[in-house]
Write a structure and sequence with these properties.
Elements: E1 4-7, H1 9-22, H2 27-42, H3 53-62, E2 72-76, E3 80-84, H4 90-108, E4 110-119, H5 125-133, E5 137-145, E6 165-171, E7 174-181, H6 188-197, E8 206-207, E9 213-214, H7 218-221, E10 227-228, H8 234-250, E11 267-275, H9 283-298, H10 314-326, E12 328-331, H11 332-344, H12 349-356
Parallel strand pairs: 3-4
Antiparallel strand pairs: 1-12, 2-3, 4-11, 5-6, 5-11, 6-7, 8-9, 8-10
Helix pairs in contact: 1-2, 1-12, 3-11
């Protein structure tokens, strides 16, 4: 097991901000990127947290990530809009695109938003949370243009990305339902985290470069690469294809269909449907039925090893409360990679460390 460092979220955020600024971003962009990554750690999604910084820096240096870009309107059809992310930081593009979709949904009752060519949108659940905070339902289908890492059901090599499906539903008088899931059995970033920690993966999540089942995470991060498997066999595979067709082909961002593994950039396309549940004429019934159903489900006696039944979004909220109080643990390998990324942009390791330590 690798050693870990524990950081309070505020100084860790400032340290990441410093790295992003060194890469050419303005203060607002650096604040949004750092806050988004640290929030992913806080909610328990370390795969999408500060450990992404080395990949971002590599993408920045190769020219696949462009600082200080904004979501560009390519088509405006009122309730139907198409945006281009201009390969900008997804933390900025995702925020701006979702803001635009929220505005249109408030105006028209619904918005169908096609977003293409954004750099890594990070945890898609954050954009669902943004929509439900505005009282709106959000459904998103996202594809990934980067090295293919997931095998199709029945296949033996990687053909597409982890392609998440994300749904946010506001619930009256209680926290919202936030389903944010990769269509692979595990997020690729979790494989990277397991490798950095020297841990094995559970069985059934990964195949090696010969298409054989393995628990060794190196086949997910080192050449010769293996591939992740989809969740639920053919079911997750079906949803992954939906994400390519809607999040990739339909948005104009493109799909993955190449063997080129050389580029470090991670581009996302996302099709989002955002609508106002209050405009359907069923608001009172929705509030009552949703509350009664969630209460009914949560009253199920917990299985062995479980303390209670939860709905999607509960684990993130619980983890965030705990990590706000106890700090964020970052394994030694990941932290050293983050420090090295800062050095590539002209910062000193000691400076980044000092900021992260709160000094």
């Amino acid at each position: 097991m690798a050693n870990t460092f524990t950081f309070a979220h505020e100084p860790l955020t400032r340290a990441v901000e410093a790295i992003v600024v060194a890469g050419g971003s303005d203060a607002r962009e650096a604040r949004l990127v750092a806050g988004n990554l640290v929030n992913a750690n806080l909610t328990g999604h370390d795969s999408h947290g500060v450990g992404m910084i080395p990949r971002y820096v590599e993408s920045l240096l190769e020219g696949g990530l462009s600082p200080n870009r904004h979501a560009l309107m390519k088509f405006d059809g009122g309730a139907l809009i198409t945006l281009d992310g201009q390969a900008g930081y997804g933390q900025v593009i995702g925020l701006e695109a979702t803001d635009t979709a929220i505005g249109r949904a408030r105006q028209y009752g619904v918005c169908v938003m096609a977003l293409g060519n954004s750099h890594h949108l990070c945890r898609i659940g954050q954009w669902a949370e943004q929509a439900v905070d505005a009282g709106l339902v959000s459904l998103s289908f996202t594809n990934v243009i980067s090295r293919s890492i997931v095998a199709p059901f029945g296949g033996t090599d990687a053909r597409f990305g982890t392609n998440p499906v994300t749904i946010g539903i506001p619930l009256s008088g209680q926290p919202p339902f936030i389903l944010d899931m990769a269509t692979s059995g595990v997020a690729q970033g979790k494989v990277r985290v397991a490798y950095n920690k020297g841990e094995k993966l559970p069985a059934g999540l990964l195949i090696d470069d010969q298409g054989r089942p393995t628990t060794d995470p190196r086949f997910g991060v080192l050449d010769p690469f293996g591939a992740l498997t989809t969740f639920g066999l053919h079911k997750g595979y079906g949803l992954a294809v939906v994400c390519e067709l809607l999040g990739g082909a339909l948005t104009g961002g493109g799909t993955w269909h190449t063997d080129d593994r050389s580029k470090k950039r991670v581009l996302n396309g996302m099709l989002s449907i955002v609508f106002d549940p209050q405009r359907l004429g069923t608001a009172a019934g929705f509030a009552q039925e949703a509350a009664e159903f969630v209460s009914w489900v949560k009253k199920s006696p917990p299985a062995e090893g479980m303390d209670r039944v939860r709905i999607a979004g509960d684990p993130e909220r619980e983890t965030k409360a705990r990590r706000l109080a106890e700090g964020i643990a970052v394994d030694e390998t990941s932290w050293n990679d983050i420090l090295a990324a800062g050095v590539k942009l002209g910062l000193e390791r000691a400076t980044i460390q000092r900021i992260a330590d709160g000094n």
